[in-house]
Amino acid sequence: MVKIKDIANALEMFAPLPLQDDFDNSGLQIGLTDAEVAGVLLCLDVTEAIVDEAIASGCNLIISHHPIIFKPLKRITGSNYIERLIIKALANGIAIYSAHTNLDNAAEGINNRLARIIGMQNVRILLPKEDSLLKLSVYVPVSHADAVRNALFAAGCGNIGNYDSCSYNVEGYGTFRAGEGCNPFCGATGELHKEEEMRIETVLPSYIKNRVISALLKAHPYEEPAYDIYPIKNSWDTVGTGVIGELPVERDALELLAEIKDKFGVGCLRYSPLPGKKIKRVALCSGAGGGFAQAAMSAGADLYLTGEARYHDLFNYPGMTVAVIGHYESEICATDIFSEVLSRSFPGLKIVKTALNVNPVNYM
């Protein structure tokens, strides 16, 4: 039987929690990780009606994009809809899990999905994550270099862009003397030993450091493996805020905006002055991404697409149009992503997309 922790693990392999922004609160909101899952209800926002739908449909796990709990709760008395739905969920054994900015920032997350819907090519991250990578150097006897290297790759090391299994290897020799009570893999206790070794260097995201060290120690033949881990300043180019890419062919601006309006079901598409040229390079950021328009312009975008932008976000971008399609419209595809991830990982699991996704913004 599938448990909530199994669902969480599958989602977090796709969109790891450490990718979320500092303000966020993604992850399990309500419930116990060892509870068995009867069915999953997918939604953008959790409301009281969504909890009622989960109860009626026999789903005891709700997966949403937007978390219901952003700040610590001092009391739960039913004074607002968040408190009321928490009470109802707990009373009916409903767990709630949310994947928010970690899903936005993931390599194949919401922004990448929007780019695919538009038909963008050569898609890359607009603002890659910074200060999130580590370099690992480890010294291994040559006879065990392949085994240790493969264990590191299996643990998540060695991914650079679209390449995996990346490492640098240098042969040399190490020296050591085993003291009393040691059980050395090679050499004799009390004698200085020289061993042909391989120095293996590879890169890893900082959040998997403990997992990598555990894999290293398990695969390494030495009692006391010598290794170094240190931060590197490289940008993590496969995860981060927004994406940028190119259209297959240049497009007339108004025709492209009309197509985007239709594809995303936008009731009223807002946009700043047109650039006076064909559109080729497009940048986008789901949700409230108006503040990243400057980054899009600096990257040479002809059009920047986002879910929300303030009035003043639409100024001061000569040569680039900022188009606002709505927060809901830019993120509703999250339920499709959830469904695909869970269907691949748990064939036969009952997965229901809510029929009650409601955009709180109405258009006249």
Fold topology:
Elements (H helix, E strand, L loop, with lengths): L3 H11 L12 E4 L9 E4 L4 H10 L3 E4 L16 H11 L3 E4 L2 H5 L4 H9 L2 E9 L3 E9 L3 H11 L12 E10 L14 E14 L3 H11 L6 E7 L3 E16 L1 H11 L6 E2 L7 E7 L7 H6 L4 E4 L14 E4 L2 H5 L2 H12 L5 E3 L11
Parallel strand pairs: 2-3, 2-15, 3-4, 12-13, 13-14
Antiparallel strand pairs: 1-4, 5-10, 6-8, 6-9, 7-8, 10-12, 11-14
Kindly state the mean pLDDT as a whole number? 96
Order of helices and strands: HEEHEHEHHEEHEEHEEHEEHEEHHE
Number of helices: 11
Morphology call: globular
Tell me the strand order in the biggest sheet.
5-10-12-13-14-11
Count of distinct strands: 15
Low-confidence stretches: none
| Structure class | alpha/beta
Summarize the structure.
The chain has 364 residues and is of the alpha/beta class. Helices cover 28% and strands 28% of the residues.
3D architecture notes:
By secondary structure, the protein is of the alpha/beta class. Helices cover 28% and strands 28% of the residues. The protein has helices at 4-14, 48-57, 81-91, 101-105, 110-118, 145-155, 209-219, 253-263, 293-298, 327-331, 334-345, and strands at 27-30, 40-43, 61-64, 95-98, 121-129, 133-141, 168-177, 192-205, 226-232, 236-251, 270-271, 279-285, 303-306, 321-324, 351-353. It is globular.
Throw out a few tags for this protein.
364 residues; alpha/beta; six-stranded mixed beta sheet; five-stranded mixed beta sheet; 11 helices; 28% strand
